[in-house]
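Render this sequence as a predicted structure.
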Amino acid sequence: SGDEAKRRTMTWLDRFGAADWTGKKVMDLSKGMQQKVQFIATLLHEPDLLVLDEPLSGLDPINAELLNDIILERRTAGKAILFSTHRMEQVEKLCDDICLLDGGRAVLQGGLREVKRRFGRDTVRLEFAGAPEFLDTLPAGARIVERGPQSVELRLTDGLQSRTLLEHALRTVDIHRFELVEPSLNEIFIQTVGQATNGNGR
């Protein structure tokens, strides 16, 4: 009913801290505000299936976290959610099952935990204090995935042992964290799409 629609609308606007938007036209809102209005319209009739395409784009970190929470609430409530995104960290946080697409083709699919286990624990996360020059002379088989001022994520290849990498790092820096983990979904995506591309000669 109209009354119920208004009640639900105000409930969602209050949750987003946006009750004062009720008199505005969507075209007058910022991109982030428009995104939230679209999200509210999607949830208003409490559907059993949600189809969300890049729902967090244009949002600041606080509102993105709020949407994350709401999406997880819907999942806990038993709703089916189809979530499309290029941001692999969002997939790791929100999704149970994945399907990676490259050029319109599914190149990897399955349960998120099973997919990550399939790729093994061959990634090292290293946090350190000291000069990062040791990263310029890594042992053969160590490939940098992501590098920061005092941290690095590396992939071990060609039979390189994590102990060899640790000994190399200890010669020049103090180690705050050294952890052997499953690769991130971002790394899995790059590796999988790269193999699919090479296999097709593209």
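Summary. The chain has seven helices and eight strands. The longest strand covers residues 174-181.
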